[in-house]
Design a protein that fits this description.
The chain is mainly alpha-helical. It is built from 18 helices and no strands.
Length: 417
């Protein structure tokens, strides 16, 4: 911490940071949630084939993977403000490009748009770590979870706007699916502006995690090296595994849910409501996940994530004709299991490596998570078309079981956090 920064009231900086992260999380998560349900339908219309319907989500997660590493490096040199502002600005270009791509029925433009929007989603994911920069160990999970909780408002509200944005788009003689992308661009402008104007002072600078005088080479840590750092610590390794499996299982099942329900005659409104219920599970109960993680430990909470995801995928595996009685609770629990894994895994990772390595390892972990979930998203389209939604859910169940077993094993051999 510099002399100038030592005069700051750290608690006040932390409170201000959390307020800014709250606002930017609502806006950025709302942007992604506004376009996600229609993106799957849009690519199906462009290709007239559901087999490759996971391509859009795959492109999005690829964009998020690249952004996580690049932005983590930028944050290490220049702070959270610069990294988050850049990420949201890049993503708003994706929203605009998405409108153009859908109107032109251009697959390549659409995939570029999804990659740029994925960078914004990756930026939103990285923002949770900013909540932990100045947080005390006994509050780390709860501070992380409050940022995730803030996403509830954007994630639940904006999928419900599918019908409205579609009607507005049609009133301008545009494809219905462009409405969600246009709304996402507007929300991302607001998110970028909020961070740029109000995240001052920068929490990472106050925490002493920025070295502006360091050489480019010294901070350009290769992805494999950063992962190796995490992998060398059993607890950090479990944290990365929890992030990867929680995200991948959630993305595989969620990505194909709109198509599965559309094939069985559900309206846009019902599909949007199911996705909203799912995102409520992801974000609305994050403070509960944070409280459990702080009170009972990171490892038990990760184990609870595996159990919850098993129950969720068991329900979706039984939802052969997409009955609402199974889709609503199944997708809700899918989101809740994700929340347990992400909150506890993020806190565990933040406290399991040295301060000098923390930001780079966080970025590498999010990159690994994005690569795995992106691969799963692409594969999910093939699994859906060739084997069905139930087999896709069983695959997710297997991954969830592996997470539960890993957490139980590490709890036996390593003292819990």
């Amino acid at each position: 911490m510099s002399v100038l920064e030592s005069d700051l009231n750290v608690d006040e900086v932390q409170r201000r940071t959390l307020r800014v992260l709250w606002a930017s999380s609502i806006l950025s998560r709302g942007a992604f949630s506004a376009m996600f349900p229609v993106s799957v339908l849009a690519i199906k219309d462009i290709l007239d084939n559901e087999t490759w319907a996971g391509l859009g989500s795959g492109a999005s997660t690829a964009g998020g993977a690249i952004a996580a590493t690049v932005l983590a490096t930028i944050m290490t040199r220049r702070g959270r403000n610069h990294g988050l502002t850049l990420g949201f600005t890049v993503a708003l270009g994706g929203g605009v490009l998405g409108v153009i791509a859908i109107q032109a029925s251009s697959l390549w433009l659409f995939l570029m748009a999804m990659a740029l929007l994925g960078a914004g989603n990756g930026t939103s994911n990285l923002s949770r770590y900013a909540a932990a920069d100045l947080s005390s160990p006994e509050r780390r999970s709860r501070d992380l979870s409050t940022v995730i909780f803030a996403s509830t408002f954007g994630a639940v509200l904006f999928p419900l706007s599918i019908g409205i944005t579609g009607d507005i788009a049609e009133s301008f003689d545009l494809d219905r699916n462009t409405g969600g992308f246009g709304l996402s661009a507007i929300l991302l402008v607001l998110a970028a502006g909020t961070v740029f104007l109000f995240m001052r002072p920068d929490p990472l600078k106050v925490a002493g995690g920025v070295d502006a005088t360091a050489t480019r080479k010294s901070h350009a840590v290769p992805f494999r090296q950063a992962i190796a750092v995490a992998w060398s610590h059993p607890i950090a390794r479990l944290a990365v595994v929890a992030l990867v499996i929680s995200q991948t299982v959630m993305v595989m099942v969620m990505t194909m849910t709109p198509l599965h329900m559309d094939e069985h005659g559900h309206s846009d409104g019902i599909i949007g409501a199911v996705i909203s219920t799912h995102t409520a599970g992801m974000f609305a109960f994050a403070p509960v996940a944070g409280w459990i993680s702080d009170k009972y430990g990171r490892l038990p909470t990760i184990g609870l994530s595996g159990i919850t995801l098993i129950v969720a995928t068991a329900m979706t595996a039984l939802a052969g004709e997409a009955p609402e009685v199974l889709m609503f609770p199944g997708l809700f629990l899918l989101g809740l299991g994700w929340s347990f894994g992400i909150v506890a895994g993020s806190a565990l990772l933040s406290e399991s490596v040295a301060d000098s390595e923390r930001v780079i390892v966080q970025g590498a972990a999010d990159t690994a998570t994005a690569i795995a979930s992106g691969t799963g998203a692409i594969a999910s389209g093939f699994v859906l078309s060739m084997a069905g939604f139930h087999i896709l859910s069983v695959i997710g169940m297997a991954g969830s079981g592996a997470l539960m077993i890993h957490a139980a094993f590490e709890r036996r051999v390593v003292r819990p956090a």
